[in-house]
Specification:
Elements: H1 3-44, H2 50-59, H3 62-79, H4 89-109, H5 111-128
Helix pairs in contact: 1-3, 1-4, 2-4, 3-4
C-alpha cells in the first residue's frame, strides 16, 4: 500500500513536466510567429472588406510563412527532445500558422472582441440577477 502514493506522485510529476514542456513550446512558438503575425496585421489593415481580408490572410506574407515553418518545427524538436511519437511537429507548426492567420482575420473584423464582450455581458447579467 505504501507503493501506491509513490507511483501516484511519480505520475503527477511526469504530468507536470509534460505541462511545463507544453508551456515552453507554446511560448517559443509564439516568439517565432511574431514577425509573421506583425506582417499579417499590416497587410490585413489594408483590406476594405471581410472578404478581401480573408483573401489577404490566406496569401499575404507567404515568404515569411515559409521561412517560419521550419523554425517552428526545429523549436518543437529542440524543446521536446526526444519528440513523443504521438506528437507531430509538422502538424503543430501548420496549426500554429493557421491559427495566426485566423487571429489576424478576427483582429481585423473585431468579431472576436465582440464575442468576448457578449460573454462578459452575459456573465455580468447572471451576477446581477437575484
Amino acid at each position: 500500500m505504501k507503493l501506491l502514493p509513490v507511483v501516484f506522485l511519480a505520475g503527477l510529476s511526469g504530468t507536470a513536466l509534460a505541462q511545463q514542456e507544453a508551456v515552453e513550446v507554446g511560448k517559443a512558438m509564439t516568439e517565432q510567429l511574431k514577425p509573421y503575425r506583425d506582417c499579417l496585421k499590416a497587410e490585413v489593415a489594408k483590406a476594405t472588406s471581410k472578404e478581401q481580408a480573408q483573401l489577404i490572410v490566406q496569401k499575404a506574407c507567404a515568404d515569411l510563412r515559409l521561412s517560419v515553418r521550419p523554425k517552428l518545427i526545429e523549436t518543437v524538436r529542440r524543446i521536446l527532445n526526444p519528440v513523443p511519437p504521438s506528437y507531430n511537429a509538422d502538424q503543430a507548426a501548420d496549426g500554429a500558422l493557421k491559427m495566426t492567420q485566423v487571429g489576424a482575420y478576427y483582429d481585423f473584423t473585431g468579431e472576436a472582441r465582440a464575442f468576448h464582450q457578449r460573454l462578459r455581458d452575459q456573465a455580468d447579467e447572471r451576477k446581477t440577477r437575484p
